[in-house]
Amino acid sequence: MPHHPSQSDSSGFEAPSPEEMNVAISQYDFREMFQSDRTGALYRAWQDNLDRDVCIKVMPPGPKGMDTAEFIAVFENEARMMARLSHPNIVKVYDFGRTGDGLAYFVMEYVEGDVLYRMIRAGEVTLDHVFEFIPQVCTALDYAHDRSVVHCDIRPANILMTKNRRITVANFGFSTVRGRSARTSATVSATSLAAVDYMAPEIREGQEDIDGRADVYSVGIMIYEMLTGVVPRGAWKPASEVVGTDPRFDEIIEKAMAPDREHRYQAAGEIAAALTRPQAGWFRSRSVW
């Protein structure tokens, strides 16, 4: 994982240093903080009794309007559900808890490899990556959705690639239980924590009954960004007009990103199927843009 240390951000969340975390959660040896933003802080730590590296996510305080007792109850319920997710394309949650200061945290599998966000920024993404990565992401999402867990923060920064090219979806720590408004989820405050550029309209608007089609929308945005290097905003142009990609991508992206979720793909696996069926005839190149 790339190393992007920072101890505070515009939201006011002050990420504890690794030294402070060694005191707060003494059973782990915190080695480094490699990311900190308004969604929380990520640390690499060593779990001595099991002889392994782990990734520990420390969350900011609960969403505004949610009292401490409610936050704790909802967080623990959702954490147990996430810990039960066991899939090769999902970063495994090993444990969860709260520090003495009341900050919630997850202990997760540490994935050694690359991040899709860095690959896009470096211009390293090819069409082969789209065909290879997106179906794996969709497989993970279908698995989670079948278990009533909606990720709510699908974006390139949360898509990891191991050295053997296995894709893993990270940060289910922002997810919500299907059917709940994202505003009432302990681990995501939709208007402030998740990346707005990738957020489905129903989450931005605070609608009730969030379901897996919110993640489908985010996958559509991610495909567009992988193809063009930019996030679609406002009156965006089809990828085929921006970089000359196969226009069949346009149809997939537009359907995934339909503002009305009834008009989207109804499951992430439908995106994977749309990509898989005709891919042999699609143009490929060393890089997309």
Summarize the structure.
With 289 residues, the protein is of the alpha+beta class. The chain has helices at residues 18-24, 68-83, 116-121, 127-146, 201-204, 213-228, 239-243, 248-256, 268-276; strands spanning 29-37, 40-47, 52-58, 93-98, 104-109, 113-115, 149-150, 159-162, 167-169, 176-177.
Distance between the termini: 24 Å
Spatial ordering of strands, largest sheet: 1-2-3-5-4
Instruction: Report the CATH C-level class of the largest domain.
Output: Mainly Alpha
Counted up, domains total 2
Order of helix and strand elements from N to C terminus: HEEEHEEEHHEEEEHHHHH
- According to DSSP, the number of beta strands is 10
**Strand percentage:** 15-25%
How would a textbook summarize the main sheet? 5 strands, antiparallel
What is the average of the pLDDT values?
A: 85
Radius of gyration: 19 Å
CATH architecture of the largest domain: Orthogonal Bundle
Which homologous superfamily in CATH is the superfamily of the largest domain?
Answer: Transferase(Phosphotransferase) domain 1
Please state the overall shape, judged from the principal axes of the Cα atoms.
globular
Give the structural class: alpha+beta
**CATH fold name of the largest domain:** Transferase(Phosphotransferase), domain 1
Tell me which oligomeric state these chains represent.
single chain
Count of helical stretches: 9
Helicity range: 25-40%
Runs in which pLDDT lies below 50 for 5 or more consecutive residues are 2-10, 186-194
